[in-house]
Amino acid sequence: MSKKEQNAGGGNVTAMPDRCLAEGCNKGQSKLAFCEEHFVWYKEGLVNKKGERPSDFDRKYALFMRKKAA
Ligand SMILES: [Zn+2]
Prior knowledge:
binds zinc ion, about 70 residues
């Protein structure tokens, strides 16, 4: 058994930076755990709340782009 998280106050604990959760994105978080762009993706179902793409991502992305262009 090992120590898990220590209580706040340590200083150099490996804290996750507030980065957008979407794969390959390293922008800062803006809304929920996403940047502005990926928050839209999240609302459109292009990423789940963990930042993972659904299996039918390509289809959804195509629809999303069409909607955006309209
Ligand atoms: Zn992002």
